[in-house]
Amino acid sequence: MLESDGLPTEIWEAIIDCVWPDQEALQQCALTCHGWLPRSRYNLYRRVSILVPKQLSKLSRRLLTSPEEAELVQELLLAPPDLIKPQQVVDAAFAVFARRLPCLTKLFVNLLLHGDPVHSRMTLDLSLRMSSHIANFPTLTHVSLLHLALPSFMALARTIVALPRLTSLRLHNVSWNTVGKIPPDFLSTEPGWLNLESITVTSVWDSMPGISLLFGITSRRSLKSIVLDSYAATAPEFSHASHFILECASLDTLVIHNTWPAHAGNFEAFGLTLTGVLNIVLLRGHARLVLDFAHVDYTSRQDIVLVASNLALVMQNELLRLGRSMLEGLEIRIWDNSDRSTWWQAEIGPHFEGVVVRSLTMTVCEGWDGDVVRYEDGAV
């Protein structure tokens, strides 16, 4: 590369990597010199975002003239805004890129409407035709569906079955109205034919009839990580899923993902889910429990402290009921600036340490793109 200038190749590549995801800056890097072109091109195409049809047409023409760049695409994000017909954009993207992205491993479909992200979602038709389109991306290992409505659970299942290498599935604010018609051979006599390693369901379980079947068809030997919404246990589906989860021999991490602000009704739901998950963790013996507060807006940091203190009491009471002294380990995730780690440890730690858990890990997730995290109480 430019080692003649005194720096090894790895340093120049690291500098270019730091420019991502600034597309304009990466384009300038690509034009700087011949030595910078490969790494700049890699960062330009490793994650492709399609928001409007114009971007799709432009990228399609580019890949036709430079097919070697198609091999650089590892992640594809489809996120058409609500002013665009999302189904047309998604259908067109699958048709245009079919069999043309040989190294694609991650697919994100995000149909978030402007306004309330919790209650707003567009409908995405994962019909038989769409499943056949998905099958044209056999290298996919991760699929994330966010803020959308599907026709049925079986529409989702057909998509999953079409991806033989799929190991991670994320459903966030996703819903459907019915299970759909289940083929006789779908529920195999041999349970666990789907080799997922990670399942994330941070949606309202009552809006996903049949979601427990997803855990039923997943291999008990492959599943390592499960992320659940804090309201999960309020739905009847949760008890069915729990039976399958208890049989997962390889499970090492259970995360409760809180997406709801602090108030009395949410305390009760979160506590119910925590009780159910805690029972699974204790019966599994080695699974790690994580309470994730990093994905919801709070009016103040004290809101999180209040929720955490209530959950510590729930854990303590459940451990006493089960005749157990304490949990081996617990991780709590917070969204804040890194210099607040000590404050969080001092405020939350005493509620858990020595009474509920032997080892408490506090993980502070910083704001995106260098943003300063601010809570509505004015604290920084």
Elements, N to C (H/E): HHHEHEHEEHEHEEHEHEHEHEHE
Helix content: 25-40%
Q: Major β-sheet, in short?
A: 12 strands, parallel
Structural class: alpha/beta
Contiguous low-pLDDT stretches (5 residues minimum) are 114-119
Number of strands: 12
* pLDDT averaged residue by residue: 83
Give the overall silhouette: globular
First-to-last CA distance: 43 Å
What is the percentage of strand-forming residues?
15-25%
Number of helices: 12
Oligomeric state, counting identical vs distinct chains: single chain
What is the CA-atom radius of gyration, in angstroms?
23 Å
Q: How is this structure best described in words?
A:
This protein has helices spanning 9-19, 23-32, 37-45, 53-65, 86-97, 128-134, 153-161, 212-216, 236-246, 264-284, 301-321, 341-352; strands at residues 47-50, 75-78, 106-110, 122-123, 142-149, 168-175, 198-202, 225-229, 253-257, 288-292, 327-335, 357-365. With 380 residues, the protein is of the alpha/beta class. Strands 1, 2, 3, 4, 5, 6, 7, 8, 9, 10, 11 and 12 form a twelve-stranded parallel sheet that branches.
